[in-house]
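// run 5 | inverse folding | seed 20
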C-alpha cells in the first residue's frame, strides 16, 4: 500500500462509510506552572514603580546640638631677624655685601638665621603640631637659588607655657607612623595638654647652606633676596 489508508467510520445516514476526522490534541497546563506565572506577575507589579518593594518606612530629624572646633594659628612679628655665622648664635653677621661691603658667603658655607618672635594660638583636646620651613616655591625654581638649601634647626619657646609640651621627635624609625607621614627627620612635635585656648611665643633658627656643587663663575657676586622667602608652616600632626 503506497499511501496510508484513512480509517473509515460508518455513515450515520447509512449511506456508507466516511473518513474519520483527525483527532484534535488538547494540552492541559500543569497547576504548578500556573502558580509560578501568577507569582511572577505579582512581583512585576510590585517592582514596576521604583525597583524596590514598597515597604513601610519613615524618618525624623534628630537634634544633636552643636559641635565646636579648635584652632591653630601663627602670627609673625615684623622684622628681618638676625644672621649668625655659627649654630650657637654667638657670631652675629651685622651686614651683608660683596666687594668689601660686608659679609659674603662662598660655596660650602652654612649660615644661621634666627627669626623674630612668632605667636601661636592653639586650642583642641587632641591637638599636636610642628613647625616646618622651606624655601618659597617661586624661589625654589629660580636658577639663581640653585644650590641654596634651607633647614629648620631649632624651635625655642620664648615665653614658657606649660600646657604646650614636646610630645615626640621624628626619626627614620617612626616617621611613617605620623600623619603627615613625610615630616623631616628631627622635627619636634608639640602637643596641647589642656582643653583651653593656649598662646605661646617662639623663635625658630633656620640654616642656609650654599652647596659646593657649582661650576666656573656660577653665582659669583650674586645677591640672594630672602625677603619673604622662607615659608614657615605651623602644621597639625596626628600622632599614632
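// decoded
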Amino acid at each position: 500500500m503506497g499511501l496510508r489508508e484513512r480509517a473509515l467510520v460508518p455513515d450515520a445516514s447509512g449511506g456508507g462509510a466516511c473518513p474519520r476526522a483527525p483527532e484534535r490534541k488538547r494540552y492541559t497546563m500543569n497547576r504548578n506552572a500556573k502558580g509560578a506565572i501568577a507569582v511572577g506577575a505579582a512581583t512585576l507589579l510590585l517592582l514596576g514603580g521604583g525597583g524596590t518593594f514598597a515597604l513601610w518606612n519613615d524618618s525624623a530629624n534628630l537634634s544633636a546640638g552643636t559641635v565646636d572646633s579648635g584652632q591653630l594659628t601663627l602670627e609673625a612679628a615684623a622684622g628681618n631677624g638676625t644672621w649668625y655665622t655659627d649654630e650657637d648664635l654667638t657670631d652675629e653677621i651685622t651686614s651683608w655685601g660683596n666687594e668689601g661691603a660686608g659679609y659674603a658667603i662662598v660655596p660650602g658655607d652654612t649660615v644661621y638665621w634666627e627669626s623674630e618672635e612668632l605667636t601661636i594660638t592653639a586650642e583642641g583636646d587632641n591637638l599636636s603640631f610642628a613647625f616646618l620651613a622651606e624655601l618659597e616655591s617661586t624661589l625654589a625654581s629660580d636658577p639663581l637659588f640653585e644650590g641654596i638649601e634651607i633647614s629648620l634647626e631649632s624651635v625655642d619657646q620664648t615665653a614658657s607655657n606649660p600646657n604646650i609640651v614636646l610630645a615626640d621627635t621624628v626619626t627614620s624609625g617612626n616617621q611613617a607612623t605620623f600623619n603627615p607621614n613625610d615630616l623631616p627627620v628631627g622635627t619636634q612635635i608639640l602637643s596641647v595638654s589642656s582643653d583651653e585656648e593656649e598662646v605661646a611665643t617662639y623663635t625658630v633658627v633656620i640654616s642656609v647652606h650654599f652647596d659646593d656643587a657649582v661650576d666656573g663663575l656660577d653665582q659669583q657676586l650674586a645677591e640672594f633676596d630672602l625677603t619673604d622667602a622662607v615659608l614657615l608652616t605651623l602644621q597639625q600632626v596626628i600622632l599614632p
